[in-house]
Amino acid sequence: MDMPSIHVCNKLTVENQHLTRQVRKLRRKNSGLELELGQLKDQVRVQTLLRDYVTTRNAESQTESQWQAKKEQRPLATASRTAAGKQAKGDEDKVNKLLSMHNTLLRRYEKEVKTNAEHVEAIANLNLKIYELEQSLQKANQQGEAAAVPACTARQGHKGSWEEK
Q1: What is the pTM of this model?
Q2: Dihedrals φ, ψ of 56, to 5°?
């Protein structure tokens, strides 16, 4: 096996380095494009969700009163409109159900908050009562010790007088 010439090895090394730089550059570009593609997909997804689930109204329809809107409603003529109306009615039922469930959860949460506040207040009152009882116990112990000291000194003085006699 013949050894390649030094010039060929040097040429291959330079070419390898050049290709390595190109690969790194392409990988960076690819990752940038992947991020951009992900952002575009997210934007498209948000736009489709908004288009499908968010209704828009013009200022005129927002300011109409309910009785005017009911008065002007007309029955739908085509079958596709009735199918869309049924789907809208089903969606409206789902939304109403979700809203009622949300209201129920809010009421439960408010009730829990109120109960927790009452418990915190009761705990604070009990801690205050414990502190007061501990203070009165310490005073009683100090008074008991103070009363015991003169009694002990009186007994000791009395013993001394007995021994002298």
Answers
A1: 0.35
A2: -115, 150
